[in-house]
Hints:
The protein is built from 17 helices and 18 strands.
Amino acid sequence: MPRFKSLAAASTATLSLALAGCMGTGSIPDASAPITQSEAQAGAEAHPQLLAEFGGAMTGSQAQYVEQVGKNIAVQSGLGNARESFTVSLLNSSVNNAFAIPGGYIYTTRQLVALMNNEAELAGVLGHEVGHVAARHSQRRQAKAQQNSLLGAAGAILSGILLGNSGLGQQIGQTFLQGSQLLTLKFSRTQELEADELGIRYLNQAGYDPKAMATVLQSLALQNALDARLMGRDNASIPEWASTHPDPASRVQTALTKAQGMSGVTNRDTFLTRIDGLLYGDDPKQGVIEGREFIHPELRLAFTAPQGFYMINGTSAVSISGQSGKAQFSLAPYNGNLNTYVQSVFSALSKEQQVTPSSIQKTTVNGIPAAYGTARVNSSSGQVDVTVFAYEFANDRAYHFLAITPAGQANTFNAMFSSMRRITAQQASGVIPRVLDVITVRSGDTVASLASKMAYTDNQVERFRVLNGLTANENVTVGQKVKIVVRGS
């Protein structure tokens, strides 16, 4: 949640035209038509907004390496006549995501790169995204759903879960997901398979092992399953509304079948050497999640999520989810009046009907001036309580929780509201980032001994296996390069 930049002021029309996060069996439409002037213009307009929303573009040798591989694979598509036709960005985001937009703009997050195990996988992911652009999937999705905006698709799904399909529910759902890195228009299964097939084609043309498309999808499926277990979900898959790479597990075999009989290089050791030291997980500049704690060293604040709830740190908001409700921590413009601030958050929830709390109460939380209010809202799936709890950290700076619970259960988040606190400079300096450390397996090393070096207190072996693409029965071998996650400086 760095600096709380929001897409609220961005042009969602421009973004919805182009953006689709992801990561076919039929005939693929013309996927070699060059980039048009209108596509280049749309991409140029959306590009700075996307960088702001997804943590900004990283710089340095790691970003340069990703750019090099991305341009090499992108030219295989025929979309551009030269490497200069493409802009490839490594995003400072802790979610596993990659996407591309018309105009030759290609993106992958550092977290997804950290999950990969060779250069062919990196080329495969970026080639998959280029395939979406080459097949004009965004335009086709847009034509089928002109009413959808960047927020609309995900918002409608979430509102269906929480509030039914009422217009008010959609507005609240959109507000909940606004600024989250989960917000991307998802492609159909057919389009995902088409992009996989195009990515495999590009890999083969570039001399990479096309089976890398299947192995990176397998790693992503394993990561999704691990994330689900860490979040305490009974189901070993991320729910559809929270997955920007829908159903990777079911696409693995299809990708393997498409790549059958093909071969090429993987450049594993080169890749691992080039990503050594890459930031992993949350960037302290954006705030970090440690168990149930969210700590933001730059903003000097922290809070604790309720037991049984999990958090996702987005670029402009932190989402808190559980079986009995959902909440989001974010900010809005502040004029020095907390009552007005709380009311403005409620007012922004719906364009169709006014959402008004029964009252707005003032209080103090751990020495921080605060105000809160709750509104009972009717929806097609029943009544819910919407709570806004705001805190003044300075004369011109305030933050708030927006929470939705079933009617009568607004107290679900009371402990979290009361846990908001300032942190000291010493506490802030103690937040140390995690980074990748690429090491060479030595004699006597085992999965268990290497996993014990991981900078986590739980599930060390499972995290190590997923990070290195190792199944439950695979072991490490002497001389093999592997990744571990350690505390940086």
